[in-house]
Design brief:
Layout lengths: L3 E2 L2 E2 L3 E4 L2 E4 L25 E6 L6 H5 L25 E8 L5 H7 L16 H9 L8 E3 L8 E2 L2 E2 L7 E2 L5 E2 L5 H9 L5 H25 L4 H25 L25 H17 L5 E5 L19 H5 L5 H26 L12 E6 L15 E4 L10 E10 H11 L20
Parallel strand pairs: 5-12, 5-13, 6-15, 7-12
Antiparallel strand pairs: 1-2, 3-4, 6-14, 8-9, 10-11, 13-14
Amino acid sequence: MNLKTNGYSRRAFLRGTGALLSLPFLETFGAVTGTGAKAVSKKMAPTRFLTVFHPNGVYPKAWDAAFEGGKYALADSPILAPLAKLSSDITAISGMSNVGAKGHVQLTAAFLTGTGIKGGKNGISLDQMIAAKQGGSTLFPSLELGTEPPRQGAVGPDPISFANTLSWNSTSSRLSPEINPRVAFDRLFRNTSSEKVKQDAQLKRSVIDLVLDDAKSMQRKVSSTDRRKIDEYLDSMRAVEVQVEKTIDPPEREWEPLDEPDLRRPPSGIPRERDVHLRLMMDIMLMALWTDTTRVGTLMTAHGFSRQNFSFIDGVSSDHHGMSHHKEKKELVDQYTIVSRWYASQFAYLLERMKSVDEGNGSLLDNTIVLYGSGMKDGNGHIKDNLPILVAGKGGGKLNPGRHIDCKNGTPLANLHQSIAEKFEIYEQAESFNGVGTGLIGI
């Protein structure tokens, strides 16, 4: 039902030959209230946090060309040029260092914790701190998406599996990303009000109760090493337990989007085409934030030790990890730069889509803090200083984008985490993020 005001419906359309194009939310029609139509929310849209990670670093000269001589010109960078039209929505930050970490595995695992893995332990990641702060308001405290299957094995003392994800909800427990578009969609947007779903959730809760009781009993009879493994298992089970409870008794929504996205269920399976797969996951992340199904998301565009083949792009014949160890050979440097530019163009797609979602007090992008980058600067040598870092969006007016911030080289990445945490009123990290941060950045 389209309720009328001033002769127009709140949901206005442009009609043309064979097409029906919906207009964005118009302030003129924003005062509509009444039975049969969803009233426009008088509350301000919530602030979200999204991380978009790409692996294997960048070729430094190709990234840094945008900032030489104190300028801020994304179009001058062979990598960042696809983001040039969005430069007023982006802050580039130089000088960040992934202190305390080394190699693909540790540098990936530290991207949201700021600290290296020691003895199999990491810090709690920034996304999970924010999820703990405001995740109770949504069906899912956080959403983790990716595009590559988890990997096993080891690199030095560290399991490669530590590079499967960015999200650590405890010092020893990780949240693995979902890589299947349909599974992710169904998990987020299934009909949770149906009787069958609630019955399944009740059954699952009963099973969880039994598992938790058995695990706690077993803890008293096993070695300290096994006890630690059971602790990790219990942490992950508690997260499932919370989700089951929210399925049975969903939280009351604090905020309603002005408009709903077209929730089209993706086809089954995982697309073979790299670009199709990544954009599907981006679209699902967008829908989850748009509908306030979650306010915290991490998107791994690839595994932290990715060997993805990019021969589908003109001019590229190598795998991403291989070309990142370029040894300054022009052919590999060129391919490395092309792939980094491809990732930047995918990020531009996501930001453009977020910018198109009108929330009354700005766009979805305006109401989000988006962290983009890699855990290393250059794959050739696993350089961990002067990381390629962008922060997009305005965070509901908390950020001032459209500039370049040049920090002193060696500034802990945790300082950025600490600064973002403060924007979400997380003050327990104010002194030092995970014991690594040394101060705030004026983002």
